[in-house]
Design brief:
Helices cover 71% and strands 0% of the residues. By secondary structure, the chain is mainly α. It has one domain. The longest helix has 19 residues. The radius of gyration is 14 Å and the shape is globular.
Amino acid sequence: MTRLLTVAILIIATVPLCAQAQQPDVATLKADARKVVGIIGGDKAKTKTYCQLVKLNKELGRADQEKRTKKKALFWKMAQLLQKLGPEFVEVLDGNADVEPNSPDGREIASIIGSLNESCEN
């Protein structure tokens, strides 16, 4: 999941955001993550989009040894999927960029978001 967040954060840096929010505190970020997971988990189309994003992330990991063009194409597809998930998901990922991934808060937020993976076929 940490790799997904890292990739998503890199994509966010290349996708223009409509509004820049102030950095949320960790408690707010956790609440937002739970809210976003509820939104995505309750919408079959968004759940499918999330699962496609996870699948592309796995392909990206395998593409590390392949040509740069394939990576660019995968990043483009992932950026499009992130937009379909909505600004709330992007904001949670953006806010999570400032949280140490191995800290208890970072692991909890990753676990909250990662709970969506249960909806995806492997």
